[in-house]
Amino acid sequence: MFSRFDYYAPQTLNDAFAALSKNGNARILAGGTDLVVNIRSGKIKPSLIVDLKKIKWLSGVTKTDRGIEIGPLTTMNELAESSLLKGPYSLLSYAAKIMGCYEIRNRATVGGNIINASPGAETLTPLTVLHASVEVSGNNNKKLIPLNKFVTGPNNTVLSGGEIVTKIILPFYPQLTAGYYMRRARVKGMDLASVNCSVLVVNPNNIEKCQVRAAFGTVMPTPYRSQKAEEILSGKKITLDLIKQAASVINSEINPRATSLRATPEYKRFMVEYFLKTGLSKILGVTF
Amino acid sequence: MEKNIKFILNGKEVEVTVHPVKTLLKVLREDLGHTEVKAGCEQGECGSCTVIIDGKIVNSCIFPVGQAEGSSIITIAGLCKEGELHPIQKIFIEEGAVQCGFCTPGIILAVKVLLDRTLSPGDEEIREAVSGNLCRCTGYSKIFSAIKKAAVYMRTKK
């Protein structure tokens, strides 16, 4: 079954680019939790597998003058345990900790999660509200793409054949900025999210400067943020009435598909207000 | 496109010549005869095929063997020392935490890694540690009490 394609584990990024440029039907192997399953089921038929495991610097979380930099090969358990993903970033490590099960989290990578771009991908809504940028490297160039421009649809990104994601960068935030990740699944353990949501409040202690961001997963093909709803909630004292207004704006903008395997559009629409209310009350420490 | 791949299996160096994207599960069972590693869903969902690689549990059914090069791998057979069962194995038997036994190798390895991390795991931590290992017989309550008992035993023995 596996004899139809080659396998190559380059030591450097340049060797990886060279291999990718020679082979139009190559696929990159990170943790393999999706790739290996998709190869076996025949969903994808690559002619070359480029395994990035030997390029060690593609893994790990560091703090630089650009912000918090996350290597694409960082596993979910490494995100969950990272001492740098606290405070404003804690919703990302919390989402990573919920994903799959312990075995899977030792293998699944954040780069794989965003490139696979499942509509309910665990890391997508936290990274969206954190305004993550994706560093995409090609043979002779490097560019930074905002995450919301990087993911274009289910299982689709702007990444072209010869390119590799080399970093995910999170900007710095004022102290006290806080977020919360929520998901609903059919069972508590091993399941994909039926619907999920991340809420981030920048400057929660300063009403005028307070900025609310909320991203919803599985309600649209890519994580959905409503500019209008966020404006309703930002820069003022948040009340239940404002939350209801914002939820109704979001519900007028989204279009959850009826063919989803995991939840009906009605359920997803119902969850919008619940997620906003729960997220904001956890972050602000008030009950609505 | 086969390659020579070397790794340590239950303390002994082994070498196989296989396609690097063949799964570790198939290599262990078919090429090395280690059928104590169970093939369940083969999609990374059920945890029957769990092995320990460099101290971490993984689903061997979605692990390309090429990535195991140079690693140290432990299967359930590697937990016995000189024919003596590991305390976790003994306590699972005593507590009746095994019914059909298919999930047991994976669960015990997941518990081994949990107890290597902490000998005082909380209830939630125990559930979390075996959340990737499906058992369709026991309903988990005996597994759960065996894990608690194993933790106490290993803590007091230390």
Keywords:
heterodimer, A: 288 residues, alpha+beta, Uridine Diphospho-n-acetylenolpyruvylglucosamine Reductase, domain 2, Uridine Diphospho-n-acetylenolpyruvylglucosamine Reductase, domain 3, Enolase-like, domain 1, five-stranded antiparallel β-sheet, three-stranded parallel β-sheet, 11 helices, 13 strands, globular, B: 158 residues, Ubiquitin-like (UB roll), DNA polymerase, domain 1
Protein model, in words:
The complex is a heterodimer of chains A (288) and B (158). By secondary structure, chain A is an alpha+beta fold. Chain A is 32% helix and 22% strand. Chain A is built from 11 helices and 13 strands. The longest helix of chain A has 20 residues, at 265-284. The radius of gyration of chain A is 19 Å and the shape is globular. Chain A starts with 5 loop residues before the first strand and ends with a helix. Chain B is of the alpha+beta class and 158 residues long. Chain B has 2 domains: 3-79, Beta-grasp domain (Ubiquitin-like (UB roll), Roll), CATH 3.10.20; 87-157, [2Fe-2S]-binding domain (DNA polymerase, domain 1). Chain B has 5 helices and 5 strands; from the N terminus they run ββαβββαααα. Chain B has a 5-stranded mixed beta sheet with strand order 2-1-5-3-4, sandwiched between helices. In chain B, a hairpin with a 2-residue loop joins β3 (50-53) and β4 (56-59). In chain B, α2 (87-94) crosses α5 (141-157). The radius of gyration of chain B is 16 Å and the shape is globular. The relative contact order of chain B is 0.15. The model of chain B has no long low-confidence stretch (mean pLDDT 95). The interface between A and B is medium-sized, with 26 and 29 residues.
